[in-house]
User: Fold this.
Amino acid sequence: MILTFDFSSDVPLYLQLRNQIVIGIAEGKLAPGEKLPTIRALADESGINMMTVSKAYQILKQEGYIVTDRRKGAVVAGAPASRISEETLRELRLKISELRLAGMKKEEILAMIEKIYAEGNK
Amino acid sequence: MAKMILWLSVIWLPFLMVYMNINETKAKKNIILGVTLPQEGREDPDVLKEVESFKKNEWLSVAVLTVLAAILWFFTDEHAYMTPWMLWIVLCIVVPYVPYVLSNNRLKKLKAEKGWIQEKHVVRVDTAVLPPENWFSPWLFAAPVLVCLVPVLFDKPMAVMYVISAVICATLWFGYRYLYRNKAEMVDSNAELTAVLTRVRRYNWGKMWLLTSWFMAAFCLVAWISGRNALIGIILGIAVTVLLCWLAFRLEMRMRHVQEKLTEQSGTDWYVDDDDHWLGGLLYYNPDDSRLIINNRVGLNSTVNMARPAGKFFIGLFLLMILGLPLLGGFLDGGIAKEITLAVEDDRIVCTSGMGSYKIDLDDIQEMKVLEELPTNLRRSFGTGTETLLQGRFACDEYGSMEVNLDPRQGPYLLITTEGKTYLFGTRDGSAVNEVYDMYH
Assistant:
């Protein structure tokens, strides 16, 4: 899986990393049980501070997307057992509202969601 | 003789610098003269024109530096040649990079005009090909360290030199381990290519440091074996040094060749482009990168990130060292040419040259004698050894390890023995030696 870090983006780097790993798991690019790079390796590779990488991993662990093991390091846990959080629903509502305000119809929004969802299954 | 040795050891410098720079006109990892170009850019007439102009300017710099070397050879004094030659060495390091930086800037402008700019401030990481975190064991470096120490058992007077070499040899492991950034050599989205390039670089990096540690070991063996013959020592020492330089050069060129061949087909789709972080194609400046040690884009070497405070410090130190070479030359010329004084002052024998000073209390002296000739097989273990001044720690067969401060051209010499130490002093005209001897007795 190729991770992309945009240093000119307003999105913090730890969140960029967290989001990409979540997308990677959802789209099957990262399989359950797959080892993630160590914090040091990822920091060396990207130039990002180790604390930033560590923060992203901690959030992923809290959300249940990864598990950490003393010997294996960080491993993909698959889909978390927890329910969809209120925050995720709020974000979804906000994005749908933005698309409506941009002039998209319900059918167009659904078609776009289906397309994105299908891309993740490839 | 010393001037000739210096001349022979540095005259090839401009040719080597220019050869290395011209080698950068061949695309490696999509980079030509420090500028990342797409595949079509390699054949672009404007790019080719710039490359040709760069080559001409590089050879022009060789011509200028060689003429300057010839002038220096004929017009420098036999005993005060260090300053002009050190200045010439600085010019050899700086001058060939002037056309490089100019061409780099022109190529960057050309790249922008042609629309070959890739995305900026974006870093991509392929998690499938991250480099392994295993390194050569430090024990691999232990063997040359032991070889450095073997002569200590047989050549005690020179023990300091062998121990220093062993310590340097041991520290090479730290250089191998910590002067390399363990980063994948990503060129484009081809994961297999990234893996091969990373593996080759890691392997050759380790090989270079191991080679250097064995060079130190070989140097110690040469010093020990040739201990009884200075000429053989010099010849073997030069041979070992030339061999190491040749092997290091070959390793670098092989690395570049591999990078060139493996990335011949790259640059057609997405490719890595971090030109914005390389000032003049030479200095890395990236505030977004938290790391200090950076791998050079082409070849095998490492550099530092100038956006980090430590990076600024190291680059500043390096520049000071380079620009300070002529000052060092002046210091050496002055120090070596300075008068050597030998006298009795306040119940002490004081011997001072431009490179060092020794004071011995008269009460500590156990024996003093005058030698008309230098002891046979006098070898330097630490200090200055020129045609007009020997100063520092030396060793010889008859008296073992000793502190020396004298002009080897003019005897007699004063040999002083104290408890646990031996000194050998002499002056430029030999006059003060007998005076001090008579005064003591």
Notes: Chain A touches chain B at residues 1-8, 36-38, 40-50 (CB under 8 Å). The mean pLDDT of chain A is 88. Strands of chain A lie at 2-6, 66-69, 73-76. Residues 13-76 of chain A form a domain with the Arc Repressor Mutant, subunit A fold (CATH 1.10.10.10).
